[in-house]
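REQUEST ID: PR-0412
SUBMITTED BY: lab tech R.K.
PRIORITY: routine
TASK: structure prediction, single protein chain
INPUT:
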Amino acid sequence: MSFPPTYMRVVETLLELYNVHKRPIKSKEIANRLGMNEGTVRNIMVALKAMNLVDSKTGPYGGFIPSQKAIEFVKSPMVVNPVNDIAQIYINGKPLNIYATSIELVNIYNPYMSKAIIKVLGNIKAIHPGDNVRIGPTVNARVIIEGVVLEDNSLSKEVVIVVKKLLAIPKIKVVDIMTKELAMVNYNEPLLTVAKVIAERKIRALPVVNDNGELMGLITSSDVAKAFSDGAFNALVKDYMRHEVPIISWDRDIYDAMRLMMSYNIGRLIVVNQEQKPVGIVTRTDILRYLAPLG
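STATUS: complete
OUTPUT:
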């Protein structure tokens, strides 16, 4: 990023005044400090606002506020790569009702500390320096960022994070990473059969099919445990199976699988073919195992 020296002096003066007064700064105050025409300062502010270096507040107590991007830029002029997208923000592993609407990667060539400036939609007061944060995957750029909150600016609704991991999700189909050796059970089988398969294969769930191999439901180790706690040792799969099955087509992107898992807070999806017959299973572990060497 480069712009005229006059612009830099205006930004630096705005920062100085803001750090002293902790309130929006009037263009007249900047003009007086620099000995410039106020109209010229206002015109520069329009340009700086377009660059996302300043935010403005209206009203009698309004004025200009430096954005976190401006603060970082004055500290050290840097390469800035913008990602205009939207993604949920996870704080210390928990999804909050907070979203990133803009991500700007800064100091990306610094091998010791790369940073990102995040524009936040939602209650920024829920984010504090030192929090572990994960953003994404973003909708359009397919990016996941993990890091630690360094600074927060409630007025400009921006946070700065130290980037620990930056991952772009590749375009690959579910069929390429799913587990194809899928154990299944007929809906008329006894639960004792399910318990045996789950114990032998060390798995937690089995898709349930009818005599034609069509998907009917899902039976989990928890369902079996409930049946046995009820004393229903001779019960059939159809008596305790779950009818709502989280599925995904085998030709869908792994990004779609990730979003489904996050939306429904689940760790596995049954993969089906064009005939809606189960042909595999994809788990959160499968996806993480694939992505780990890329991160």
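NOTES: The longest helix spans residues 5-21.
REVIEWED BY: pending
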